[in-house]
Amino acid sequence: QAKKASRNTLRFFDQQMQDAVTARVALEDELRKAIQRKQFRLLYQIQVDRLVRPLGAEALIRWQHPERGLMSPDQFITVAEETDLILPIGQWVLDTACAQLKTWQQDACTRNLVLAVNVSAKQFRQADFVARVQATVQHHAIDPALLKLELTESMLLENIEDTISTMNALKEIGVQFSLDDFGTGYSSLQYLKRLPLDQIKIDQSFVRDITSDSSDREIVGTIIAMAQNLYLGVIAEGVETEEQRQFLVGKGCEQFQGYLFGKPVPAEQFAAELITVVDASLDQEDAKERL
Ligand code: C2E
Ligand code: MG
Ligand code: MG
Ligand code: MG
């Protein structure tokens, strides 16, 4: 009896594993076709300064899947990385982002916007990554200073000497760097000061509870002070409330991103909403002048 039960259990797990493998293979296969079928979209989330003036945006990928609907990166980026499909996908992102920068460049209202693009570890480690960035920037004839590459701590510390030389080569092209999800990794300050970074991005997990959790308040204050000491810019992500914004402003944070200012939206909507944000920040400046 026991033997039979265990055999059934085994068969059950076999079936589950089989299903998981089948689903994974199907996802891989669909992911492989998604580029040619033009199923990826880039959404743009606004980044603002202390007066809520627009500074730029972060490009965030979505997969418009024919059956599963709009998929978030959490549902496919890991598989893309494991299969190296992140390489063509990452190139598509870079190319689409640069095309968008070109479009922005042609309008007085959007010409100074900086666009932040997420780069995965595999992409960054490609032997020809620097050449690819250069070729893409040149192809679209954009000002490289308007392109900001978002890198994460873990990928940079993997092989620090290679990291530094790749970053320096990219710096020569003129692009900017932001250190994404800062505080979630194990950055040693020793390494941090050797990297040619422009900005540190405070992870949203710290921002979420700054109005209630005193240790998160301390951490965020420390990160901002550290950024200032290293002459780095600092941006907070995941800012959802006015209280969070006020706290960050008080600590000296310079840039902000989060639902309080805008969700990630398609390019057309981004341009339309930009006007609203500009109006709001003008109102603020008016209010200041009146004081
Ligand atoms: P990330 O780069 O840290 O991006 C920030 C994430 O926080 C985005 O999730 C954004 O939609 C979300 N977010 C922004 N403001 C708020 C807020 O106020 N509250 C909350 N709760 N969330 C907020 P998303 O778009 O799902 O992207 C998740 C992650 O996927 C990104 O984290 C990034 O690591 C990765 N990713 C996104 N696009 C790309 C891409 O083009 N290439 C690569 N390699 N990775 C990407
Ligand atoms: Mg990011
Ligand atoms: Mg982040
Ligand atoms: Mg994050």
Automatic annotation (TrEMBL):
Domain EAL: 24-278
Highest taxon listed in the record's lineage: Bacteria
Species: Sideroxyarcus emersonii
UniProt name for this protein: Uncharacterized protein
Residues represented out of the complete protein: 459 to 749 of 749
